[in-house]
Amino acid sequence: MKKLFLTLFLSMMFAGVVVAGDQDFTLINDTGVEIHELYISPAKAGDWGEDVLTVDTLPNGESVEIQFGGKERAAFWDIMVMDQAGDSLEWPHLKLTEISAITLTFVKGEPVAIYE
Predict the structure, then answer these.
(1) N or C terminus of the chain with fewer C-beta within 10 Å?
(2) Model confidence over 29-48: pLDDT tens digits?
(3) How many domains does the chain have?
């Protein structure tokens, strides 16, 4: 009985860790511009890190799968994209563990992330 309890406890503990760190999502570009760089960082990190776009560019209307390694942990994330001219746009404070797809777009001239 003790072994069964321990096995169930450990299974639940590790299952929670896997789910909690799963930030993978599909990024859909509906910005009206071609994305040349993509940065994703934990909210309030103060540093964008490296470009994580896995394709050369992401044309308007196209999508790309974004995958994280197992070490990244944060409750909320910020996204920044840059176009060919070096202009940047930001979508802050996204809870990626609860999002499977994000459409980056504009509503009334303001950047909006629509997610599912």
Answers:
(1) N
(2) 999 999 999 999 999 888 99
(3) 1
Separation of CA 107 from chain center: 20
Q: Does 9 score more than 90 pLDDT?
A: no
Contact 29, 16 (CB under 8 A): no
pLDDT at 7: 35
* Residue 12 maps to a domain: no
Boundaries of domain holding 37: 23-115
Between CA 94 and CA 77 the distance in angstroms is 5
SS3 (DSSP) at 97: helix
3-state secondary structure of 13: helix
The three-state secondary structure class of 15 is helix
